[in-house]
């Protein structure tokens, strides 16, 4: 008689994909989310990733609020910030000064709140997937696509405001300075589609990079855990646990790194558009 092992592929996809079920901790069962919510014919029922996005948003608010109160209290006492408040303040100052303002340039402080929100929200979405019974909302292409869409709108709308209609049009219809006549027309016909594609590729790259990195790590972790059930060997189990521990530590680094990269590239793209002249 042969033993039938679990379908590891099905388990991996079930754990990493979105659903209307949330597994509760400590064997308490499952929480079935309501279904059938419709808006203009579209299904807007809450899913697992929606719930964890709301949790991430609440954690962002609580983190900044509590850290702000701590810093304010220490200043009122005439003391320097310390503990949790000092740690969050250092992270906020780093993202504001070295990511947003440094890469956007003059006027970058206006975009610092948006870049900070992106960083902390993506960071919490990434970290929540590392907890038992958690889920990584940024492993959902729709979530990363929506984040990239906000970046795209911020980049283009702020560029239109900063450059004016005529200046913004030059970022689409590109003609090298000094070129006139037929050469200018041909250059505009050739470069305009390329410039439009370039504008669309930037948010697409943001979307795909975050989604792929967060999904790939979870696939590797679940695949390594699956080796234990496939082979049922103590040696394989020990090796699998060691590699999974290493991958989880790597995933912790990736969670911070991907939040940083998304915020950094968004700042760079905003700066490129703000100072396109």
Describe what you observe in this structure:
With 277 residues, this protein is mostly helical. The protein has one domain (18-274). The chain is 72% helix and 4% strand. The chain has a two-stranded antiparallel ribbon with strand order 1-2. The longest helix has 51 residues, at 181-231.
Count of alpha/pi helices: 7
Query: What is the SS-derived class?
Result: mainly alpha
Radius of gyration, in Å, reads 23 Å
Which strand order does the major sheet show? Answer: 1-2
| Main sheet properties | 2 strands, antiparallel
Helix content: over 70%
| Shape summary | globular
The string of secondary-structure elements, in order, is: HEEEEHHHHHH
Uncertain segments: none
> What is the first-to-last residue Cα distance?
74 Å
Mean of residue pLDDT? 86
Beta-strand percent range? under 5%
Question: How many structural units, i.e. domains?
Answer: 1
| Count of DSSP strands | 4
Q: Tags for this entry?
A:
277 residues; mainly alpha; two-stranded antiparallel ribbon; 4 strands; globular
Helices and strands, with pairings:
Blueprint: H1 8-16, E1 21-23, E2 30-32, E3 38-39, E4 42-43, H2 48-76, H3 83-104, H4 112-128, H5 141-170, H6 181-231, H7 234-274
Antiparallel strand pairs: 1-2, 3-4
Short description:
The protein is mainly alpha-helical and 277 residues long. The protein has helices at 8-16, 48-76, 83-104, 112-128, 141-170, 181-231, 234-274; strands at 21-23, 30-32, 38-39, 42-43.
């Amino acid at each position: 008689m042969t033993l039938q092992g679990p379908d590891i592929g099905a388990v991996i996809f079930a754990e990493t994909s979105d659903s209307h079920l949330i597994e509760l901790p400590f064997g308490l069962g499952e929480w079935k989310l309501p279904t059938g919510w419709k808006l203009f014919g579209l299904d807007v029922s809450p899913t697992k990733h929606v719930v964890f996005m709301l949790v991430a948003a609440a954690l962002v608010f609580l983190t900044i609020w509590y850290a702000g109160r701590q810093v304010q209290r220490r200043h009122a006492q005439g003391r320097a910030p310390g503990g949790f408040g000092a740690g969050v303040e250092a992270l906020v100052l780093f993202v504001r000064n070295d990511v947003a303002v440094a890469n956007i340039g003059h006027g970058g402080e206006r975009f610092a709140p948006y870049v900070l929100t992106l960083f902390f929200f993506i960071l919490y979405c990434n970290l929540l997937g590392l907890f038992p019974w958690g889920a990584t909302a940024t492993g959902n292409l729709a979530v990363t696509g929506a984040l990239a869409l906000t970046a795209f709108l911020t980049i283009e709308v702020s560029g239109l405001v900063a450059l004016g209609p005529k200046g913004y049009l030059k970022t689409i219809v590109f003609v090298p300075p000094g070129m006139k006549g037929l050469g200018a027309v041909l250059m505009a016909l050739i470069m305009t589609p390329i410039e439009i594609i370039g504008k669309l590729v930037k948010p697409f790259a943001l979307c795909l990079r975050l989604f792929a990195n967060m999904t790939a790590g979870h696939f590797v972790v679940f695949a390594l855990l699956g080796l234990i059930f496939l082979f049922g060997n103590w040696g394989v189990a020990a090796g699998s646990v060691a590699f999974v521990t290493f991958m989880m530590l790597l995933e912790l680094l990736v969670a911070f790194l991907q939040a940083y990269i998304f915020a950094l590239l968004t700042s760079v793209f905003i700066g490129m558009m703000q100072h396109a002249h």
